[in-house]
Amino acid sequence: MAITLNSISRSLGFKAPTIIVHGSSGVGKSTLASGAPNPCFICTEDGLGKLEVDAFPLMTSFQDVLDALNVLCTSEHPYQTVVLDSLDHLEPMIHQHLCDNYVGPKGERYSSIEDFGYGRGFMFALDLWRQLLNALFTLRNEKGMAFILIAHSEIKRFESPMTDSYDRYQIKLHKRASELLMESVDCVLFADYKTVIEKEEAGFNKIKTRGISTGQRYLYTEARPSFIAKNRYGLPPELPLSWQAFSDALTQSTRQK
Predict the structure, then answer these.
(1) Of the CATH numbers 3.30.70, 3.40.1620, 1.10.287, 3.40.50, which one belongs to the domain with range 16-46+53-256?
(2) pTM reported for the whole predicted model
(3) Residues in CB range of 94: below 8 A, 6 or more apart
């Protein structure tokens, strides 16, 4: 393709948001996504509980997920949001798909992603994650659909080059897959219970601190040392854990730009 000044065009501005929501089990990630406009769920785990939502049958392979996205892309339907629940249950399906379909230069086959050696399997798996992202962004660009990717969190040590290392909540995926997904979407939102710190005398001039959950659930939109998050909309750093609160903040943010 020849690139000239005539190739330049103005972007169309705001598009349907692309979102990752991560947090602990039971905090309300799926409930949050169920409040999005006309959602359709693609589930890789049986985690909907009592939620009454439209959903495909439970996915058992990566190809099933691609087929479901293709159906949404090629069919007429009322859905405005696709929800993938969850990424960390999809990851082993991606790894299995890679092992089932990869043939090495000498005809070698692998039964586990670890068998590739030197982290090569996880590098090859990125091509499948990109295939997933391409399908999702095709839905966004051609159908105007938002997408929400749900994931569980895990606590891992972060080796900072600027400070001492510390623990933080991050998405429960292989590091390379997590980085690819996070850099591709508009928002990475962390869902958690609000915690307050209580201090009390422990004797001998010592102070004991403990975290106490208030039971209130919040959505965090900006990164902190204790968790990964981001957004491209200038949202408030924290919001009540509800789609209405997120939608109102998003509308307010886009009006100000």
Answers:
(1) 3.40.50
(2) 0.89
(3) 62, 125, 128, 129, 132
